[in-house]
Amino acid sequence: MKTKQIVIASVVVIVLAFLVFLNMPSQSDREIQIGGIFSLTGKAAPYGEWIKNATELAIKDVNASGGVNGRLFTLISEDTQTDPKLAVSAFQKLIALNKIQVATGFVSSSEALACAPIAESSKVVMITPIAGSPELKEAGDYVFRTRESGDVQGYKIAEYIFNDLGHKEAAIIFENTANAVGYKDSFIEKFTELGGKIILSESYEEGQSTFRGIITKAESVNAKAVYVPGVAAIIGRVLKQSKELGLNSEFFSSAGIEDSVLFDIAGSAAEGLIYTSSAFSEDSSDEKIKTFVSAYQDQYGSAPTAYAANAYDTIMLIADAIKKQDSVDADKIKEFLYQVKDYHGVSGKISFDSYGEVTKPVMLKQVKGHGFVVIGEK
Predict the structure, then answer these.
(1) 91, 85, 175: which is closest to 128 by C-alpha?
(2) In this predicted structure, what is the pLDDT of residue 29?
(3) Strand-pair category, 348-350 with 102-105
(4) pTM of the shown model
(5) By percentage, how much of the chain surpasses pLDDT 90?
(6) What is the C-alpha to C-alpha distance for residues 170 and 187, in angstroms, rounded to an integer?
(7) Which domain covers residue 192, as residue numbers?
(8) Spatial CA neighbour of 105 closest among 45, 32, 55
(9) Scanning 126, 154, 278, 375, which has its CA 20 to 30 A from the CA of 33?
């Protein structure tokens, strides 16, 4: 009899334990998975690393404060190798296998534009802290970005060259990619609107390493102002070869050149180049920014860029959306984001318009020595 009672008691304990187990939240229920589509290799690798670093730092801060509604963030990241096709595959994988509702990264404009239709058809929110192509404005209802559109930078550098420096003619040398084409188009729009003349507009293909033919053309039209939007790894070669060929021009560029690799490639040929950049300062007196800068430096041993600040704010906005909406559903996150006005982030104030775009001020910077120096805000 006693043995039978023990057996019954044991069965009851097992059944109760099993019921408790069945009612326990699963690992996926306890976590909120965030997709990360990052260029960690390829020409945009430095930018992808900045974005991933800041994303991880933000997730660490969210989780340290107890997560969102009792659930912790987990980053599921993929390396796109700066290849739009791989970016699409990575995004589709995260949607199909991990059931993500929101993703960040999409470092190059080409990758972001390639992934935007996937976000729309799958109804998954994508937020890029860095892609600048003006075409993203019309990319869909589920597409957001926490940086200003590249056309703002194209307009501002055109105004500076025409109004402040007095150049009435300009040449453009640009890579045939979504990012550089966007900057080129906005530059031409504003420069010609002001009364300026584009005396040369030459493109080169992705992966090209020799630009001597294009540089010779710029010299033949006596180009005094040359706009070369793009990334440091490529623009560095353009500047170096221009100096070697004796092209005596003032060079101007976009925010993508702000990377130390510029000096490794161009050396002194980069001296004096003027470019536009998001108005983020690591020396800001704002306490929120100071805390972010200090934490980033402690974690990664270098100061954060404007794009890193955008990436940090992206995660914080996602956390805020899920908390306020009490839901991880993409439609709820999207609904919240469209209502964001004057969010005080480490990258500045963020308000999304009806296109998922933000408006932020732009700085003018110049290469001096082996540094990037602010010369004004437009």
Answers:
(1) 91
(2) 64
(3) unpaired
(4) 0.85
(5) 84
(6) 10
(7) 151-278+364-377
(8) 55
(9) 278
